[in-house]
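Re: Re: ligand-bound prediction request (bumping)

Still looking for help on this. To restate: I need the protein modeled with alpha-D-glucopyranuronic acid bound, output as structure tokens. Inputs repeated here so nobody has to scroll up.
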Amino acid sequence: MRFHFSNKLLSLPFALLVLGTAALSLPQAFAQNANYDESKVPQYVLPDPLVANDGSKIETPEAWKNIRRPEILKQFQTEMFGKFPEADLSKLKFEDVMTYDKFLDGKATVKIVRVYFNYPEKAPKMDLMLVLPNSKKDQPVPAFLMPNFQGLHTTTDDVNIPAETFEAATRNKGKNPEDVRGVAKSRWAFEKIVDAGYACVTVYYEEIDPDFDDGFKNGVHPLFTNFNIEDGDYPAAISAWAWGLSRALDCLETRPEIDAKKVIVLGHSRLGKTALWCGANDERFAGVVSNDSGCGGAALSRREFGETVKSINKSFPHWFTKNFRAYGDRVNDLPMDEHELVALIAPRPVYVASASEDLWADPKGEFLSALNADPVYRLLGTDGIGGVTEQPDVDTPVGATIRYHKRTGKHDVTDFDWEQYIKFADSIFGVER
Ligand code: GCU
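Reply:
Sorry for the wait, this slipped through. Here it is.
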């Protein structure tokens, strides 16, 4: 799923072996040559989220809302992710495709709902899989919305979950769908989620936009007719995925099973970048979780630790705007940094999570974004990161409205992560256990 190199793997013999035996892909080569040495992080000054472009201080919630927030949102749209298109809601259509009430030995019901983005055209479309707690039948439940990497059926071994979305899976091309059934199941703590009374909704992200550089011709891009592909702020792939998640919320708003005012958008890795961007634009989401989102997500660009703006633009040019490429050698010229992406979610609760071996994603840079969003959360009357000033030890979740943890282990989503996200949801929705 991703290229991870721990420090151990970066040893000289290993590097020589790899270099001697195979040509490295671009991301692998970047990962090997990245800086993982804290003492080599350059000096930098972060843009102040509470100073407006004209230099004036932002001192009231109204000034944040009316002046500064729109400025920062525009900076991210123009320089990094691209515009976030309006939706033509009259073209959206939702269709029930399947109900299966014996999931998890009868603890949960799975419903698959098809979302047509441009009805009556059948394509593009996406299938949402709703995993609903049977213990809460007949009442709307809060939900986690988390896109998946390889198709609905890769989240579970249960053969009743169809492998239809498989066809779009560029990652799985040429494989038998059943060969990848359940491959990602360790990332989907469905049982814990429904036991806690929550629904989990997932969508295969490449149904929204296939994840390769085709000049923005496929996926939902043909629907973005108000934009010119040549423009430096054209909505790139992360904007498209985030836009698709907003359409998923449009659908959930029509579902009696879901309390759509209580949906947390959650994403891992590139989809963690997507979750942050989605939550920043779409204020209907009650909370946002960024799991190991790294460069272009929660990690501060100015630290240039692990993956950098320069390397991410070379490896994944289709994720970001053309404008973003200009900053590869001059990250300090970016008008914004990633703490301001977190701040755009304020005052809604946000959780930034890292993993100790995931140096490529810069756990410290992820923490510093969470920390430096705190002044905005406080201005808006919340308890922010709850007085935390230092990155905590591993496996020690901290924070308040802004939360953070660094889990032991590699780049992944684990039960430990989910346990924290469920507690986070409980705190947002006032659930006592
Ligand atoms: C690569 C990429 C990261 C990304 C990750 C993923 O490692 O460099 O930026 O987060 O893939 O999405 O799995």
